[in-house]
Amino acid sequence: MKRHEVSKCLLCNNPIDESVTWITLLSNQFPRTICSHCEDKFEPYPAEPIDKTVISLYKYNEQMKDYLHRYKFMHDVLLAKVFRHQIHQHLAKKEATIVPIPMHPEKLKERTFAHVDELLKQANIIYEHYLIKITTETQGGKTREQRINARQIFALKENQNPAGKEFILVDDIYTTGTTINQAKKILLDAKAKSVTAFTLIRR
């Protein structure tokens, strides 16, 4: 893996000052893609959340809001590299099957890439699709009550059998939990042994 994959921060375009040591050369650590100044603006989510079935890495602050806008809506796919080390560190040794929250095919055409899949790919995490999204409806812009009362937006993918298996659902952001809970219900109704979740961000 290249030590100097990028020379300038993907967020602010300032030079990345990363000294190369034998430890970084011999380890599996990913090269930095953002500068320490930008990195410090992201706020870690508490390590001991109230709901331990959902683990999140960062709080939703202004820096993260800007990151998400550029990554998802301005289609800057390179930004999938920013958190790959943190995602890899958390998921790489998990024995459960990693399942990304899927996009509807129409939304995928519009965005040009599956943003959750891309985060996992860049982090070298193996995943499987067990779910399909059956509506183009999104949770963005809805009130908390509308999100909680939303109709089921997922279905089990054809020829997939979750029975007796352990799963970790992965999404970019957790707000009210509606998306994760609906996906979780589909897998548990199909006799999955357990379903937990991991998200990059939590509001």
From TrEMBL:
**Superkingdom, according to UniProt?**
Bacteria
Q: What is this protein called?
A: Competence protein ComFC
The cross-references to PANTHER family, in alphabetical order and at most eight, read:
DNA UTILIZATION PROTEIN YHGH
Q: Which family does it belong to?
A: Belongs to the ComF/GntX family.
Looking at the record, the residues that make up the Phosphoribosyltransferase domain are 124-203
